[in-house]
Amino acid sequence: MAPKRKQLAAGPSKPAAKRRTKLAKEHDITPDEEAEIQEAFNIFAQHPSDYDAKEGMIPTGEVHRCLIALNAPPKDNTELAELVETVDPDDEGWVSYESFVAIAALKLHAKHDDPEAQREEVEKAYMLFTRGQAREVTIGDLRRVAKELREDVPENVLKDMIREATRGGLGGVNMEDFEGVMRRAGVFG
Fold first, then answer.
1. What is the pLDDT of residue 16?
2. Which of 2, 119, 136, 158 has its CA 20 to 30 A from that of 77?
3. Model pLDDT for residues 35-57, shown as the tens digit of each residue
């Protein structure tokens, strides 16, 4: 007689929660933030076939571009020099992933704690909806963005999005409403 199989629990299964690595815990970053940092780092990481490359490292000259890819660029050349000095104190010309995570985490934390940086991020996102025009976001803008993203969003859902942002009305969404939605969605702390 064949052994009986265990019955699986009925209902939708949850995706496995991402676990924080030791490095993520050390620098107090989420698994998603670490994945973002690793993706940016890997874009600029050297491969053994590259001329004078050190495998799994980036040249110090790429630190700036890598931070830009994370949307966390240094404020000025002085800060960039300090960051490079931190990750390459012996001036060898190369930065390891572990060293880069340390400064990237610092920049991400600073960005999340800086109200001015948050406001700039809200304005950039807002302007994507209005195509750079100084006006309110309309239901037409939501339709356009959904179409550009190849998402089939029913009209009633678009109206609900406007109502959520404006706290009940169907008019346009101003910058303050938009920022409120981003905060409620957890984009900012």
1. 57
2. 119
3. 999 998 988 886 555 555 567 88
What domains appear along the chain, each with residue ranges and CATH number?
22-113 (1.10.238.10), 115-184 (1.10.238.10)
Please state the separation of Cα 3 from the chain's center in Å: 48
pLDDT of amino acid 25: 87
Q: Which residues of 127-153 are buried (b: 16+ CB within 10 A; e: fewer)?
A: eebbeeeeebbbbebbeeebeeeeeee
* pTM across the whole model: 0.54
